[in-house]
Amino acid sequence: MNSKGQEAAGNVIQLPASTGWPLVAAFGFTLVFAGLLTHVFVSALGAVSLCVGLVGWFRQVLPEEVHESLAPVLEEVVRPAPSPRVRHLEVGERGHRARLPLETYPYSAGVRGGLVGGAAMAILAILYGIIGHGSIWYPVNLLAAAGSAHIAAMDYRQLLAFSPTGLVLGTIIHALTSALVGLLYGVTLPIFPRRPILLGGILAPLFWSGILHSALGIINPTLQARIDWAWFMASQFAFGLVAGLVVARHERISTMQHLSFAQRAGIEAPGIGNEKSDNQ
């Protein structure tokens, strides 16, 4: 048997046979040390798995290495025509690695989608204030309480009243948060090109609401104590659907990964771009 994997008679190549015994030995080795923290029986099971894996592994290579026969597949090599200019591979051509996505949305689309989604969210928040508490300033002051200790210390009646500080602070917090989340939508939606609304309108609001539900007690205790989660979830879904729709309808732009490093760096040198003809 040819142990070097060279071509044998009948156009057959002998290669080392694949085996799973190293994986069994590694698993047993891990269990041996895991048993030091759990139970002695875990170490015993690991020792048995380690021994079985080592024996099986050694039988694959001793006294003779086990091989498997493979028939080579010949591929016709097409040589490109000689050219005085360097030809760069396209993205994905001949196994060239591509960093996906190939196209993305401009940052302005994400910011615009976030602001429009924030407007839709604000409408639902105002409806919640009118229907639930008879005041449009209640949700505004609750949001502003995240950045003002004075507003966070207000009682229920004070939260229902108009507060200039609450209006300015709540508007700034809501606008900045909406723009940043919209920018995140613009970056992540191209990764899911088939169903962007599913990500932006359903999955992202669920994920975002779950994080806020667990961390809101630290970020804004006043909002945590007074929030109505049904209205909160409705506003999150409204933001996600509107922002995702606005971003998804925007025209995409190609990423710069198909360009050479010199072009991405802005270096002007002969041969890195399309040369102008002599007639131009």
Distance between the termini: 67 Å
Number of domain units: 2
Give the overall form.
flat
Low-confidence stretches: 1-8, 274-280
Based on CA atoms alone, the radius of gyration comes out at: 32 Å
Structural class: mainly alpha
Q: Order of strands across the widest beta sheet? A: 1-2-3
* Strand elements, count: 5
How helical, in percent, are the residues?
A: 55-70%
Describe this structure in words.
The chain has helices spanning 21-34, 40-61, 107-133, 137-144, 149-152, 156-160, 164-188, 196-219, 221-226, 229-248, 261-264; strands spanning 7-8, 12-16, 67-70, 103-104, 253-254. It is mostly helical and 280 residues long. It has 2 domains: 7-70, Orthogonal Bundle (Helix Hairpins), CATH 1.10.287; 103-254, no CATH class. The protein has a 3-stranded antiparallel β-sheet, with no helix packed on it. A two-stranded antiparallel ribbon has the order 4-5. A hairpin with a 3-residue loop joins strand 1 and strand 2 (12-16). Helix 3 crosses helix 4, helix 3 packs across helix 7 (164-188) and helix 8 packs across helix 10. The longest helix is centred in the middle third of the chain and has 27 residues, at 107-133. The protein is flat and about 90 Å long. The N and C termini lie far apart (67 Å).
